[in-house]
Each structure stands twice: as structure tokens, then as C-alpha cells.
Amino acid sequence: MTSEKPPVINVHTPSSSLALVHSVASDPLTSLFDKLSRKRNTDYHGKRVGPGWLKYEWNGSVWNLDDGADYTIFQWRQNGSTDSPTIYLRNPSEPLPSQSSYRNPSFYLFRLDHTGIHHGSQHDSSSARSKKKYNPSHNDALKHKKEFEDFHTTNGVRTITGSIGPVQNVRMLLKTGYRYVYIARKFAMRHGFIPQDAAPGQYGYSGLVNIGKWPITVGQTTTTHAVYLSEESHFDVVLGRSFMERRQVKTNPIDPTDIICLDTGERLDCELVILKDGKGEIVTVT
After folding, report:
1. Which domain holds residue 14?
2. pTM exceeds 0.70
3. Domain for residue 230, yes or no?
4. Domain-embedded: residue 258
5. How far apart are CA 204 and CA 194, in angstroms?
6. pLDDT 10s digit of each residue in the chain, 286 long?
7. Which of 21, 88, 210, 217 is deepest in the core (most CB within 10 A)?
8. Residues 166 and 264 placed together within one structural domain of the fold
């Protein structure tokens, strides 16, 4: 029996954690796919693990592990590390566990702090808390930071870029204050969602009108939603709660631009927009 430590890779799924004997330095990515696919007593046993299933963290970000090029970069980033590498495994065709089900706290989307890779030791954390406790200037800085963030969160709105139907690169408002997905009347007429000669009393002037279901692509994922007309003049498309619930959108109260779709784990590119009228006054979008 050999006493040599085998090469191990840690694997966290949304509902469990496991470890495999796998050498990142010498074994190929296809071998890792095969080992994971054959692993018994897992919630994905019998399914083929492949591109889109694996991710890993490095330098504060989450990276895909889909092909040989990704794996080469992963190998380089692990070079010189004495810790066992960690990857995250999830079937992209299945939803994440509901909030009422068990969620693995080691899975990157379910950690309280999902923005960093290295979490300090207990001693380091205790020291940091002690410094904060006895440092009045730190508390003052936190207070001013919170006031600054509250101001911009209140007056700014989250916007993302995506496509609706055949129209690409559309700036969309992400707002929980709306129930459905809406498109502005002028935008709808310009792109053929409603007739060019739509008269008052039709297509929304007489009430909320559903103009059908349309595919909406944000990030790498397309979902279909019922779309309604809107008289909102500031944005062509408004994504309300129906979109956010479908994509399981998770926002960060500290950083308004940090948005994750939990259905796929995608982090969306978000811009915070502060609207002003011709007099320079801030316009509130309710």
C-alpha cells in the first residue's frame, strides 16, 4: 500500500460535495468529464457531464471549464498551488434547488460571500473584527459608504442589454415594481410588434394589452415571456417580476450592479443609470 498522497479534486454541486482522484497537471478534461459521469450515488448519475457543467473560481471571478482551452488556463492557474483544486458542477438544463430544499453552502452561488475565493482563517477574522470594534474612523467610513450607496440605489435604476424577438442590443430596465415584461409603444411600432397605424383606443390606450409571447435573450440564455405595451418613455423594454422570477434573478444590496441569474449561474453585465430631465432634475422611475 502506498503512502503517497493521491491527486484530489474537490467537487461541489448545488446539493452535495465530493472528491475525486484526478491530476489536473496530467489528466485531460475529457477524463474529468468521464469520472464525474460515472460517479455513483449522485443526483446526476447516468447523465453525461460535458461543456456547460463545470466552473471554477479564480481571482474573485467564476470561470467556465468547457473545453481544452479553458482547461489549459485552469492548469496554469493551479500551477504551484499546494491546495487541492476546487470545481463547481451543475447540470445546466436543470433548475437550482428551491429555497425550501437543501442548498449546499459550499456551492459558489449559495455562499454568503460569493465574490471572493480565499476566506481568511478564524484567527484572521477575529483580528479583523477586533480592529473594527476599536476603530471609530472605520465605523464612520462605513456610515458614509452606506449613505452614498443608498443615494445611488434610490435614484439609479438597473439596466441590462439583451434582445427581444428579432431586435438586438436593446437597453432594458430591470425593475421589480413592474409585474410583467413591457415594451414602449414607439419601440413596438418601429420594430413591427404592433401595426404602424395603431390608433388611440387600441393596443394599450384602453388598458393593459398583451401583444403575445416573445423570446428575450439576456446573457447566454433565452426565455419566452408574455409582453405588454407600456407608455414608459424612458426605456424601450422593461423587465418586471415575471422575468426576474423566471430567471431567478439575485441582486446584491451592497453593489447594485452585481446581478446573478440563479437558473444558469450567469452574472449579467449591469449598468446603473440615473435619469435627469432637461433641467438636470433627477427623474424617478416608479
Report:
1. 8-110
2. no
3. yes
4. yes
5. 11
6. 556 788 999 999 999 999 999 999 999 999 999 999 998 878 787 789 999 899 999 888 888 898 988 899 999 998 888 889 999 999 888 888 888 888 889 998 887 644 444 444 444 444 444 444 545 556 666 665 555 555 444 456 888 999 999 999 999 998 887 889 999 888 888 888 888 766 555 555 555 688 899 999 998 899 999 999 887 667 889 999 999 999 999 888 777 788 899 888 888 888 877 655 445 454 444 4
7. 88
8. yes
Residue type, 137: S
Q: Is residue 150 part of a domain?
A: no
CA–CA separation, 12 vs 88, rounded Å? 5
Look at residue 204 and tell me if it is in a domain. Answer: yes
The total number of residues written for the chain in this structure: 286
79 contact partners, CB below 8 Å, separation of at least 6: 25
Number of folded domains that form the chain: 2
> Do residue 207 and residue 103 come from a single domain?
no
Q: What own/partner pairs with CB < 8 Å and gap ≥ 24 does 61-64 have?
A: 62/88, 62/108, 62/265, 62/267
Q: Which amino acid is at 248?
A: Q
At a CB cut-off of 8 Å and minimum separation 6, what does 251 contact?
158, 258, 259
